[in-house]
Every structure is written in C-alpha cells, then in structure tokens.
Amino acid sequence: MQAKKRYFILLSAGSCLALLFYFGGLQFRASRSHSRREEHSGRNGLHHPSPDHFWPRFPDALRPFVPWDQLENEDSSVHISPRQKRDANSSIYKGKKCRMESCFDFTLCKKNGFKVYVYPQQKGEKIAESYQNILAAIEGSRFYTSDPSQACLFVLSLDTLDRDQLSPQYVHNLRSKVQSLHLWNNGRNHLIFNLYSGTWPDYTEDVGFDIGQAMLAKASISTENFRPNFDVSIPLFSKDHPRTGGERGFLKFNTIPPLRKYMLVFKGKRYLTGIGSDTRNALYHVHNGEDVVLLTTCKHGKDWQKHKDSRCDRDNTEYEKYDYREMLHNATFCLVPRGRRLGSFRFLEALQAACVPVMLSNGWELPFSEVINWNQAAVIGDERLLLQIPSTIRSIHQDKILALRQQTQFLWEAYFSSVEKIVLTTLEIIQDRIFKHISRNSLIWNKHPGGLFVLPQYSSYLGDFPYYYANLGLKPPSKFTAVIHAVTPLVSQSQPVLKLVMAAAKSQYCAQIIVLWNCDKPLPAKHRWPATAVPVIVIEGESKVMSSRFLPYDNIVTDAVLSLDEDTVLSTTEVDFAFTVWQSFPERIVGYPARSHFWDNSKERWGYTSKWTNDYSMVLTGAAIYHKYYHYLYTHYLPASLKNMVDQLANCEDILMNFLVSAVTKLPPIKVTQKKQYKETMMGQTSRASRWADPDHFAQRQSCMNTFASWFGYMPLIHSQMRLDPVLFKDQVSILRKKYRDIERL
C-alpha cells in the first residue's frame, strides 16, 4: 500500500515538471521572438518604449465620421465570411445600420415642417393600381407639397411595390432610373414602398436596386433585416384593397361569451417544397375536423401533380367542403401561418372579421410594430411549437378573448381598412420620429380614436383631448365658452342675438361669451352689448367666411364650446341641461336641432332631410356643445377643398363638422330635449330667414353630403333614436320636484 502511494506521488511530480518545462519553453520562445522583432524594428529606425513605461498602442488615428452604409469597403470586411460579403453587396443590406440619426437629414424638416414630395410621373412608366392609390393618398394628405424645396420626405413615382422578377408588374432597369433622379442623394430622406421582393426559390428581401440611405415601408419584412426606428413594417394588402374609407369591422355585437362555432381555423395553400413549406405541411397534425379546422390544398401552380404527396388528394377533398368566408366569420381564432413570404393576406382578413389572429411566422416584424402593441389584439405563436397552439388558445379566458376581438376592430378601422390609412399611419410614424418632443405615446396609438385623429401639435397633454378623461381619472370640464356666430348688423336692442347673450351669460356653467363678428358692417360699440356677469368678447371673423366659426381661437379658454347661431332661441335652463348631458359624453356633439341622412335608391346618392322624426344622424352647430379640439381638427385635418366649398356656398359647415366628429368617434351625436319652437324660430323674420327659405340652400346641402362622403370614402354619419330628457320630464308630478322645470313651459 505504501509503495503504491510512493509511485503515485512520483508520477504526479513528474507530470508537474513536464508541464512546467513545456510552458516555460513556450514563454522562452515567445520572448526570443519578441526580441528579434525589436531588433528588426531597431534596424529600420523604429523606436518602442521600454516595458517599464509601456502604453497601449492604437493601430491608426481616429477616422472621420462616415455613414454606416459606406463602411463596406473598410478593412474590417477582410475577416467577414463569404456569405456576409455577398450580403454586403446586396442592396437590402447596404444600409443595414442606417438609423434616423445617421441617414436622415433633419434640417430639411425644420423650416417647413413635415412635408412630402412625390416625384412627377415619367413618360412611358407604368404604375400599378395599388401604387397609384399610395401616391394618391399622399397627394391628398395634409403633408403633401408640390415644391421639392419645401419637402422633408421624398417618395418615388417609379413603381417599387412588386420586385418579384417573375411578376408582370416588375419594373425593369429600376437601378439606373433611380440613380438618374436629381434629388436622389443616395436615398437620403427618401421613402420606398414595397409589398413583394425576391422570387422563386429563395424569396429574399432584396428589392433589386441600391436603396442607399432610403427608408423602407415594406411588407413581410423580417426582424433580421428590419432597421428599428428607420424602416416601417406595413401589412400585405391586395390590389382590391379600397383606396379610402373601407368597410367597417364585422364585430356587430359584444356577445358574451365571445365564442363562435370554430375555435381555430385556416384555409389556404400547402407548399410541397421550398421556403415556407414546413409549417403548412404540419397543420394536419392539429386539425380535428370539429372546432379546429385547418385545411390545406396542393392544387395550385402548373406542376402540382408532379410534386404531390400521399396526402394531397385527401387534403384537396376536405378543402372543398368548407367555405372560407363562413369559417372566417364564425371562428374565434384564425391561424396566420407564413407562406412563401412572412406576411399573408389572411392577417388583414382576420382583423376585419374580428377573428383573433394567431401568428405563426417566426421572424416577421409585425405591421406598425413600432407603435402598435400586438399583444392586445393577437396571439404570437412559434412555428416550432405548433402542437401546443390548440391548448394555448383554449386556456385564454373569455374576458381576454372579448378584449382581443374588440382591439382587432379598433386597429382595423383606425389603421388598416384602406390604403389611405396605411399610408397616413406610415407618414405619422415617421413624423413622430422627427419631432420626438411632441410624438404620440403608446396609449394614443392603441386606444380609440387612434393616432391618426389625435394630432400632437394641438397638445402634448392627454387631458386636453376629449377621449382620455377616464384613463387619466379626470372629470370633464365644468365650464363652457359660448361662441355666437353673428352675420347681421346690430340695429335694435330687441334682436335675438342680444337675448341669446343674456340667456347664455346667466348659465352657472358659462365662463365667457365670444361673439364672432362675420358681418360686413363695422363692429358695434361696446355699450351696445348688454352688461353681463361674464366677459363678452367680440372678435372679427377671419376673412368673414363660414369656416372661420370653427377656427381654434386662442380666446377660447375652456375645453367646452357652446356653438350658437345669432337667431337661436334658447333659455338658460336649456343651456344648463345640454351642458350637463355633454359632460357625460365629452367626445360627441350634444345639442338641439337634429337632421338626418338617407340613401336615395332612385338617384343613387345620399340625401339630406330636415323632417322631424324619431331618427337623426346630425345635430346642427347652431345650438350645440362640443369639445374645442374639434375646432383644431376641422382647421388642420380636413382638406382645403372641402373648407373652400363651404366658404363659397356659405353653407354646410355644420354638416361637415358632424361628418368629422362621427368619423373620429364612430358614434352618433346626442340630441337633448325636443324643442318645437326651434323650427318655428328658424323660419321667422330674421337674418337667416332667407337662407332657410331659399330653395338653393336645401339643394346645396344635398350636394355637400355627397361631396363629403366621397372625400371620407364612406358615410361616417350614424343614425340614432336616442333623446335625453331631464329626469321626470313630462311626468305628472309636481313641477317643484323637477330640476329643469322651465323646459316644460317653453
């Protein structure tokens, strides 16, 4: 036993000595090699500091700054792999490290704000309908400018949507055409739209020309190639996608429980070979033919029979048994697997149908992911965990399912229902990057009414908008400003406008009265106006046109605005009651005179009616309360063409305001207690009598309805049969028990 221990000790000692000599020899050789290099350097006149005073040596001086996309020829590329070299030479990767800070010139946006210039169309160049819709949406927006010297962003008129070389829409020689543009500047401050890139069999994301420092608004873009806060991921949409307006979502009722006939559905092509085939080929493992119906077909393409497998015939038979639309509208969840490319048309189809998308496309940068929280509207799955999808969605609580479905409807209608909304959302995202100090936050983008209708230039505080009082725990405003639109000279102390001033001033909620003087005569002297307990401010209307009544005047210090025509007859009690109703509905128009619209089948156009019925869709601004933000939105959101039409006709401004508010809220206005005398008063011998009695006045309003509907792309007005009356209104009880007792005496 002792002998074994001695042998073990000797063996260990020998091993240690061997290792010591080995590493010592390496160190000795390294020092000799280093001394030889020093001798060689000495012979060449080079000097090195002694080891006692050693400092780190840098290989070369600091280089001047160059954009990231111009570093591909630097020495650092010597050590990259051949695949990386190929990628570096591909146009999609040349500006891969571009960001707003390095590849965008902010100085172009400081002078004239965010303006977008579209290159004029070149002769002989064909543009697909989808790209024409994109350009039309830009040219019709408030961002458009025809002067390139005022532009902050530039968009090509060359069709870049379809870069699949096998597509008939493919534009040849795009590389040379783009480089010949005199404003190209290596793509700086340019935005390129693209839906399809690459071709069979790889379907890469290369758009086929050098994009330089341009931003990409691209569908089916991968997280690997997506440049955060520079590119914009957009949805894949079909050529039939509406240019403006678009259909509303299909969720009509908030059914509880929010479950439908099918739990999970899919119906689409199955690729037997090539990219995108693995996921769809495995769907049959999950299909149960009952509440999980996942159908695929091999029957597509010219040579499908040459490549079909043993499951093709059975799959094709099962595929024909189901109607896609019926499945879509009767399913709780819709599977959205990748196809040849990462994106799919089914994504938008599922959103519209209120079918919660179950994403199965690893690496896809979801549309507008920079601002949209998709966890509130979709289930993000993993292609590698396909078999776990059914159990995962079954575990989602019914409350969560209802919230997901409701959010799909909001996102569809706010950002995806038309080409115009997709384009405007893209531009608004870029604008927020440029002007970060007033950019929208996540709450604005992901809550009704959405980022397109909440303009941050108005205010950076959410409490200044009528949509977020509940979120912020705020109470609606407690005071209003009465804005009276005056168009006739003040010749008598018995004129209705003076009585109106007195009635509004006596309201306990009135903070001030503004008289907007749109009359051709000079302003009346101050002593002509009655003495009131609140300030009365008289201002001249800008250009004395109809739209000037909706300008965002700085004199309006309250959030609530009581809009009045000069000949309106309202009592203080009526004003008080209308304002208390508005406090419960601060995002809507609340008022007295109501009108309605209808579809005239014989003329195939929209009609306007002033008949007194139980149905209405407009509350005229001659006696209505609304939030003053709508003044700003009317002035800065609506196009000049519509406002010019209103000013030329001196008519329809109230209809246009109703169109705007209903488009934003997706809700009807609210009518308060019926007042029979209002109609009779409007037809009295006042300044507006000729206007209401004029037959052209009614015809003009009919025409306005159709022009406005054409611009919005749909009819935003919504019918309602709700009328709010005071408690105990018309009840057979003592009048002393009623708060608004004077209303019944009118």
Automatic annotation (TrEMBL):
Part of the heparan sulfate polymerase, a dimeric complex composed of EXT1 and EXT2. Could also form homooligomeric complexes. Interacts with NDST1. Pfam families: Exostosin_GT47, Glyco_transf_64. It comes from Ursus maritimus. This is Exostosin-1. Pathway: Protein modification; protein glycosylation. Keywords: Disulfide bond, Endoplasmic reticulum, Glycoprotein, Glycosyltransferase, Manganese, Membrane, Metal-binding, Signal-anchor, Transferase, Transmembrane, Transmembrane helix. Coiled coil: none annotated. It is found in: Endoplasmic reticulum membrane; Golgi apparatus, cis-Golgi network membrane. Its main location: endoplasmic reticulum. It is a single-pass type II membrane protein. Residues 480-729 form the Glycosyl transferase domain. The chain crosses the membrane at residues 7-28. GO terms for cellular component: endoplasmic reticulum membrane; Golgi apparatus. Belongs to the glycosyltransferase 47 family. Residues 111-395 form the Exostosin GT47 domain. SUPFAM superfamilies: Nucleotide-diphospho-sugar transferases (SSF53448). One of its GO terms (biological process) is heparan sulfate proteoglycan biosynthetic process. It catalyses: 3-O-{alpha-D-GlcNAc-[(1->4)-beta-D-GlcA-(1->4)-alpha-D-GlcNAc](n)-(1->4)-beta-D-GlcA-(1->3)-beta-D-Gal-(1->3)-beta-D-Gal-(1->4)-beta-D-Xyl}-L-seryl-[protein] + UDP-alpha-D-glucuronate = 3-O-{[(1->4)-beta-D-GlcA-(1->4)-alpha-D-GlcNAc](n+1)-(1->4)-beta-D-GlcA-(1->3)-beta-D-Gal-(1->3)-beta-D-Gal-(1->4)-beta-D-Xyl}-L-seryl-[protein] + UDP + H(+). Its EC number is 2.4.1.225. One of its GO terms (molecular function) is N-acetylglucosaminyl-proteoglycan 4-beta-glucuronosyltransferase activity. Glycosyltransferase forming with EXT2 the heterodimeric heparan sulfate polymerase which catalyzes the elongation of the heparan sulfate glycan backbone. Glycan backbone extension consists in the alternating transfer of (1->4)-beta-D-GlcA and (1->4)-alpha-D-GlcNAc residues from their respective UDP-sugar donors. InterPro entries: Exostosin, Exostosin_GT47, GT64_dom, Nucleotide-diphossugar_trans. PANTHER family: ACETYLGLUCOSAMINYLTRANSFERASE (PTHR48261), EXOSTOSIN GLYCOSYLTRANSFERASE 1 (PTHR48261:SF3).
